[in-house]
Amino acid sequence: MARSRPLTLILAGALAAGGLLALTPGAQAADAELARNGGFEAGLDGWTCTAGSGAVVTSPVHGGTKALRATPAGSDNARCSQTVTVKPNSTYALSGWVRGSYVYLGATGTGTTDVSTWTGSAPDWQKLSTSFTTGPSTTSVTIYTHGWYGTPAYQADDLSLYGPGGDPVQLPTAPTGLAAGSPTSTTVPLTWSAVSGATSYHVYRGTTKIQTVTGTSATATGLTPSTAYTFQVSAVNAAGESPKSAAVTATTTSGGGGDGGNQGLPAHALVGYLHASFANGSGYTRMADVPDSWDVINLAFGEPTSVTSGDIRFKLCPATECPNVESEAEFKAAIKAKQAAGKKVLISIGGQNGQVQLSTTAARDAFVTSVSKIIDEYGLDGLDIDFEGHSLSLQNGDTDFRNPTSPVVVNLIQAVKTLKAKYGAKFVLTMAPETFFVQLGYQFYGSGPWGGQDPRAGAYLPVIHALRDDLTLLHVQDYNSGPIMGLDNQYHSMGGADFHIAMTDMLLTGFPVAGNADRFFPALRADQVAIGLPASTQAGNGHTSPAEVNKALNCLTKKVDCGSYQTHGTWPALRGLMTWSINWDRFNQWEFSKNFDSYNWS
Q1: What is the pLDDT of residue 253?
Q2: Which of 202, 478, 512, 567 has its CA 20 to 30 A from that of 196?
Q3: How many CB atoms lie within 10 A of CB 65?
């Protein structure tokens, strides 16, 4: 998202371009090179890059054999920095070579006036230079380089800070107070006490370093349910890494209801929506006529009496609209027959036209009561949440998906937990959000730290996260979507295998929300994830041919046919596919379900 560049930076760039910065005092005789690993020949040693944005490359380079490549994403500007020991009341020269658009070089913590310089466009290597004088009590400064929001990756090399060196930095002591919070089936939150002089912390699971953070908390993700893990933390600064902390052990939970309600589902399942309450160009399909290919049948849709009432109603399509509709008794009997055959039948709430905003506790309670009534009336197995449009959004200041404060989000979470508690371990819970509400959260979350963003961006993430141990299936709609940035920091467009691979990889790998590494959305289990697609070209934008669907499945489950995208794992347990809809698949001669039935998962 475009942002206005601060006037001070523009003036700084103009001054640098005019050569006025050359008037600053020269380096003193006792000066020395103070930047550690400024040429990145030792990788990122000595440097910390926000949100995992930095990497070392072998081309292009300015000097030596390596250089920094950092990629802005969302509200992260790919800032790479290091803290350097300096002397008070001393003058320093900062310089570096950069390539790219809107690349900055600067220093903070000078004790006088912090400085920065930048270039708006450097198609080839360009030198940036500035200088500063430290304050009377300044003993360390932080030098940095960064790009700009929404711009491509930039390169930096041969960064230099020249001036009198300060007193040697002392190795930090080992962190204390390491504690584990309440685990989920796949995550363990960790906290510890700050260490004086530390600039970052390494987090270890067993002997494996799993994260580097700048704060005093982290969440270990991608863990196995019902498993004990041991964690340690070390403190890091320019002098090196401290000894590790005392170890703490935590055991992940078994998950809500044992496996999130997966009882009775096959290892690989086909999910479809049945137009039960309305007709469109695809025609009405009776419950009894749904082929056995479909393992989960979502009744579309239960809709509210008003946007904010929370009172959900469901009725079969009227005969005037659907002449071949079955009777209530026949419909209920067909549901029982499907369940006897091992199928799951759920009520889906929302859809394109069914806006649901649980903005009050009264709406929350009405939602629980009315949804329970539908489930009981038709003997259903659970609930599908298909909130679209403006059903979910985040209020200003609601910036942490782990601790949401927006009423429509908090009340939905509470309502679903109440339903889960009421119906028990076999309650099936699925969700069908759009990419805007999930994967877009990698770049943008709510209205953002400065406001002005669409408050719906990433708004499903707190719901998914809070209910992950109760969640049977998440099948994001990989259709009717604009281009979305993947974990490769490239944009992917719907309609081919690449889009489904990149979007699903995000769910199975996890990602920093809005580029904030301290707010990492943990990966879901593979058996909790299905890929959502339209069944035909008429069903929605982004239809994917059977051959491309198979390529996506091959890549995600076997790591073949991946094309240019490199996944972060292989997931043979990927649950399967979802489609809008059973009716449109019937209209299209059952092409989608036949392809699923013939796919070789082994």
Answers
A1: 82
A2: 512
A3: 11
DSSP annotation of 374: H
Strand-pair category, 511-513 with 516-521: antiparallel
Q: What is the mean pLDDT of residues 142-146?
A: 96
Which tokens is 270 given? 């086909």
**Separation of alpha carbons 236 and 46, rounded Å:** 9
Q: Provide φ and ψ at 473, rounded to 5°.
A: -145, 135
For residues 326 and 287, is the Cβ–Cβ distance under 8 A? yes
3-state secondary structure 163-188: ECECCCCCCCCCCCCCEECCCCCCCE
Q: Would you say the pTM of this structure is higher than 0.70?
A: no
Is 50 exceeded by the pLDDT of residue 578? Answer: yes
Question: Which member of 303, 326, 388, 434 is catalytic?
Answer: 388
Q: Categorize the per-residue pLDDT at 1 as very low, low, confident or very high, splitting at 50, 70 and 90.
A: very low
- List the structure tokens of 289: 């006529």
Q: Which two tokens stand for residue 73?
A: 């994403």
41 is catalytic: no
**First and final C-alpha spacing in the chain:** 43
- Give the whole-angstrom CA distance, residue 466 versus residue 402: 7
Output phi, psi for 289, to 5 deg: -95, 0
> Of 492, 483, 476, which Cα lies nearest the Cα of 580?
476
226 and 254 Cβ atoms separated by less than 8 Å = yes
Phi, psi angles (nearest 5°) of residue 502: -65, -45
Residue 366 token pair:
């009405």
Displacement of CA 83 from its chain's centroid (Å):
29
CA separation for the pair 592, 545 (Å, rounded): 9
Report CA 203 to chain centroid distance, whole Å.
20
The structure tokens listed for 66 are 């390596």
Distance CA 98, CA 120 (A): 11
SS3 assignment, position 546: helix
pLDDT at 16 over 80: no
3-state SS class at 68? strand
Structure confidence by residue, pLDDT tens digits, 192-215: 999 998 888 899 999 988 887 777
Which residue, among 237, 225, 161, has the nearest Cα to 199 in the 3D structure? 237
Is 189 exposed, middle or buried, given 0-12, 13-18 or 19+ CB atoms closer than 10 A? middle
